[in-house]
Amino acid sequence: MKQATVVGSGVMGKGIAYAFAIAGFKVYVSDIKEDILQKAKTDIENLMEGGYKKGFLKESIYQQAKENLQYDTDLETAAKDSDIVVEAVLEKIDLKVQVFQQLDKICKPEAILATNTSTMSPTEIGAQTNRSDNVVAMHFFNPVHKMKLIEVIRGLDTSDETVSKVMNVSEQMNKEAVEVNEFPGFVTSRMNCLIGNEAMNMLMEGVASAMDIDKAMKLGLNHPMGPLELADLVGLDSRLRNIEYLHETLGEKYRPSPILTKYVKAGRLGKKSGSGFYNYS
């Protein structure tokens, strides 16, 4: 496993590409627009330079990682020779299926196709390809360069060989992997959405301010980040899509907090829009 492709160059895609590159993989990053890719290139290079200047990356790794990265809007060029492809597009099942159907035609037969979904079914996605045994979910965490965990989610047809290879890739990337049998929300998203949604309900009910809810979780329960801070970082639109899916599949306890729906309708999407539960202007 020497060459990887990341499809989608948003926050998660950039982080995954960075992690592959510093682990010694040749990496292609693909997105639909050239200006989006150029921004991703700038952001990844800035992250690498910052890591090198702060002493987190050795010079040899820094230089090699820069050489390892390629950017291309043509998905066929980016993916045809890769050993593993990680999809990191929006949490919309139709979009993910469309990407996987394209990859199924483009990639070599033995290539592993992984989705970075936080909630959706690798079984459903894999069933739309002719290689469901090679389809798996690799759920990375934000920010990828700091977070050690990868959830490896086995679909109904995912082979033992595929899971073994992905666990090895995770180790090459200096990550810790846990194997999860597919169920909506997996382990972390199922818990995280519930905690975050309850924090939003408490804010709406006036139990405490956003800052004090987050402070209580950090100092009282030793969470590194409060649930409302985390929702702002992930993006409130992404969080809403995730919890709507869990509400649909797991039932009433995952009904989205009304304040989350209201903020998304108002365009308050969190850090990326400048305001969410906090103001970032």
TrEMBL record:
InterPro entries: 3-OHacyl-CoA_DH (IPR022694), 3-OHacyl-CoA_DH_NAD-bd (IPR006176), 3HC_DH_C (IPR006108), 6-PGluconate_DH-like_C_sf (IPR008927), 6PGD_dom2 (IPR013328), NAD(P)-bd_dom_sf (IPR036291)
Statement: the UniProt record of this protein carries the keyword Acetylation: no
One Pfam family matching this protein: 3HCDH_N
Domain 3-hydroxyacyl-CoA dehydrogenase C-terminal as annotated: residue spans: 185-280
Residues annotated as transmembrane: none
Coiled-coil regions listed: none
Any single biological process term in GO: fatty acid beta-oxidation
Domain 3-hydroxyacyl-CoA dehydrogenase NAD binding: 4-182
Keywords per UniProt: NAD, Oxidoreductase
Site feature (Important for catalytic activity) residues: 139
Presence of keyword Oxidoreductase: yes
Residues reported in the UniProt entry to bind NAD(+): 8-13, 31, 91, 96, 118, 142, 272
Involved pathway(s): Lipid metabolism; butanoate metabolism
Single annotated GO MF: NAD+ binding
Family: Belongs to the 3-hydroxyacyl-CoA dehydrogenase family.
PANTHER family the UniProt entry points to: 3-HYDROXYACYL-COA DEHYDROGENASE FAMILY PROTEIN, 3-HYDROXYBUTYRYL-COA DEHYDROGENASE
UniProt-recorded name of the protein: 3-hydroxybutyryl-CoA dehydrogenase
Species of the source: Lentibacillus halodurans
